[in-house]
């Protein structure tokens, strides 16, 4: 099985994706089956150790802070050590940290393992996203990322029900399930996905000295990763800012919703039911993406529509006081997520220079780490001081701001990506210099 398709095997919208992508999607779905534990981290801390809501928010913020270097290291390892190796290391590390949280006998020990989990939590994300970008052409990336999200959503349906059941028994069992899922995912990745090519472990110095290819300096000039400088790319940084605001909103749903339900006198574990409803919406909504009105949406328009639906759904949460009343807003914001998913990652992958996909995706992915620091602090403070209504209306306003600004950023990024289409395309094994793009 090969990691990259040949040029004459370029995919169209009617052709199957490479088996590499399907194996990766399947492995991540297994991982997602047990990945609802973090949504209940703050609840576990407050109920198990009697900590205040603010203290639980601070511990969650420490986790978010730890994920920032984790994501960046994951990008570096993806481009240098190899995609598959990095994914396996990250998943095994997550399992160890999750088991540590379960076995911890004090709040201090729990904090240690929460921070350790943050340090390894994002290692596998950049290589997973980069492996998809490697395996398909630029025009198929949004579709591939969307299918990944749909598979994760399908697994999320089972995970939500699992969380709702186990959460009523012992919240720590959610972390056990998550750890086992990480190990199973690592096993699938290690045994089913193609191995990392030798070039993945080639250092920049070796590449610069001309080792690894006998086709001349012209090819080396196109493959040496010396020009990869994501932190100096203003277009990428603008996307990062918008992505951080989106992640801030999304993490309020995933991390604060159980607390909101408890605040309104509902069982926190009922959040699992709402997460399942969201996942079901995304899975059943996949055929909608093939309908002409949605299939022909440009990326800027899709951003505007998606964020508007998110804003409407969160505004609906502000007035909901029963589990049933939370269901309709959940479906609305999930439809927005369905439209948005994959588009930002496809833009970032297109912007990346050759051999820099992992690092570009890693820098963009730090949006989740930054938001992971801010979201628990902002969410818990808003909830504690002004209540659920203020929390959800604030998040709704943030989505409306993104609905206005993100389309403009998308147009700029699309224009930039079209100018650098050749460097961002998947690079096959060393071969004669590629022809210039026809535009």
From TrEMBL:
Where does the protein end up? Cell membrane
Query: What is a single Pfam family found in this protein's UniProt entry?
Result: MFS_1
**Record keywords:** Cell membrane, Membrane, Transmembrane, Transmembrane helix, Transport
**Its topology with respect to the membrane?**
Multi-pass membrane protein
List where the protein spans the membrane.
21-43, 49-68, 88-121, 147-167, 236-260, 272-289, 301-320, 332-354, 360-378, 390-409
* InterPro entries, per database record: MFS (IPR011701), MFS_dom (IPR020846), MFS_trans_sf (IPR036259), MFS_Transporters (IPR050171), Sugar_transporter_CS (IPR005829)
Compositional bias (Low complexity): 413-424
Q: Which residues form the Major facilitator superfamily (MFS) profile domain?
A: 1-413
Give the superkingdom in one word.
Answer: Bacteria
Q: What is its main location?
A: membrane
Q: Where is this region: Disordered?
A: 413-439
Question: SUPFAM superfamilies under this entry?
Answer: MFS general substrate transporter
Q: What is this protein called?
A: MFS transporter
Q: Which organism is this entry from?
A: Streptomyces atriruber
Task: Give the lineage.
Answer: Bacteria, Bacillati, Actinomycetota, Actinomycetes, Kitasatosporales
């Amino acid at each position: 099985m090969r990691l990259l398709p040949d040029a004459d095997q370029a995919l169209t919208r009617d052709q199957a994706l490479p088996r590499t992508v399907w194996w990766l999607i399947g492995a991540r779905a297994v991982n997602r089956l047990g990945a609802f534990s973090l949504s209940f981290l703050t609840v576990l801390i407050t109920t198990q150790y009697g900590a205040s809501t603010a203290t639980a928010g601070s511990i969650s913020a420490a986790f978010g802070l730890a994920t920032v270097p984790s994501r960046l290291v994951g990008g570096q390892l993806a481009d240098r050590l190899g995609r598959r190796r990095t994914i396996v290391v990250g998943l095994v590390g997550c399992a160890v940290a999750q088991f540590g949280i379960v076995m911890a006998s004090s709040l201090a020990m729990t904090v240690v393992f929460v921070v350790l989990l943050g340090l390894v939590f994002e290692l596998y994300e950049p290589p997973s996203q980069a492996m998809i970008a490697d395996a398909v052409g630029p025009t198929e990336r949004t579709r591939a990322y969307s299918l990944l999200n749909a598979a994760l959503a399908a697994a999320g349906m089972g995970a939500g029900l699992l969380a709702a059941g186990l959460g009523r028994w012992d919240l720590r069992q959610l972390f056990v399930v998550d750890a086992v899922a990480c190990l199973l995912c690592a096993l699938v990745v290690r045994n089913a996905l193609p191995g990392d090519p030798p070039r993945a472990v080639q250092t920049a110095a070796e590449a610069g000295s001309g080792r690894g290819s006998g086709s001349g300096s012209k090819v080396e000039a196109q493959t040496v990763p010396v020009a990869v400088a994501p932190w100096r790319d203003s277009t990428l940084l603008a996307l990062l800012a918008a992505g951080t605001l989106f992640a801030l909103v999304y993490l309020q749903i995933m991390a604060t919703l159980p607390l909101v339900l408890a605040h309104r006198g509902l069982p926190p574990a009922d959040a699992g039911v709402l997460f399942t409803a969201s996942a079901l919406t995304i899975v059943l909504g996949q055929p909608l993406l093939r309908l002409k009105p949605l299939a022909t949406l440009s990326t800027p328009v899709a951003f505007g529509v998606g964020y508007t639906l998110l804003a409407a759904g969160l505004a609906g949460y502000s007035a909901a006081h029963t589990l049933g009343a939370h269901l309709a807003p959940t479906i609305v914001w999930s439809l927005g997520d369905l439209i948005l998913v994959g588009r930002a990652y496809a833009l970032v992958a297109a912007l990346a220079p050759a051999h820099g996909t992992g690092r570009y995706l890693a820098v963009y992915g730090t949006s989740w780490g930054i938001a992971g620091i801010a979201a628990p602090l902002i969410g818990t403070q808003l909830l504690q001081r002004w209540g659920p209504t203020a929390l959800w209306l604030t998040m709704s306003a943030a989505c409306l701001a993104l609905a206005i600004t993100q389309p403009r950023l998308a147009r700029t990024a699309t224009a930039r990506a079209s100018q650098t289409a050749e460097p961002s395309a998947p690079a096959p094994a060393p071969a004669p210099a590629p022809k210039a793009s026809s535009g």
